[in-house]
Amino acid sequence: MKTITIEGQLRTETGKKATRQLRSQDLVPGVIYGGEKEISFAAPSIAFKTLVYTPNFQLADVKLNGNTHTCIMKDLQFDKITDKLIHIDLLELVEDKKVIATIPLNFTGIAKGVKDGGKLTIKMKALKVKTYPKYLLEQIEVKVDDLELNGNIRVEDVKIEHYEFLNSPRIPIASVGLTRILKQEEAAASTAAPVAGAAPAAGTAPAAGAAPAPAAAPAKEKGKGKK
User: Fold this and answer.
1) 39 with 11: CB under 8 angstroms?
2) Which pLDDT does position 200 carry in this prediction?
3) For residue 32, which of 6, 1, 4 has the smallest C-alpha distance?
4) Can you spell out the DSSP letters for 115-132?
5) Is a pLDDT exceeding 80 seen at residue 225?
6) Angle CA(37)–CA(55)–CA(95) in degrees, nearest 5?
7) Higher-confidence residue: 100 or 197?
């Protein structure tokens, strides 16, 4: 798995005044959770660029005063006006301690429904999982080859050993639906198809070979009956 290195410094002062001073020096304050104790630190904003501005799942080796902390991202905070990163929370990986991570999905293959003229729609790009650090993956591979027209792949269909998926199991992550052309073709076909057993419209000649309708029984004449 790809790992980036972040050189930082421990923070001895906290609070709004201290954090404003750090940001004025283009440093981003952060906190590392999950280890023996919480660690407050700061690092140059440019050091977080390849970790934050990417869809990929990566590890970060944060070096502080000669110690290295292997972490994953936990939370981010951006300035509402400038959209600059102003705070980061990291989660330190401990070998025998499960972590919660968001892993990107990688869809592979060509869906059967696409070959039949449908369109593949990706509904989720990542899944939230709980596992031990040694089982973390850069991405979760999802094969779509057997996905048929009007079919779905749901969270519950993704099976990976040692992974507990935290998303709702019935949520679709990918589906194949009808394209506009297929919808039009189906509508035209259903309109043109005759309904089995339907009677011909009034004034319409019966189809060739069709049996004549049975003659109506004569009405009884009034006044005629048993004497």
Assistant:
1) no
2) 54
3) 6
4) HTT-EEEE--SEEEEEE-
5) no
6) 35
7) 100
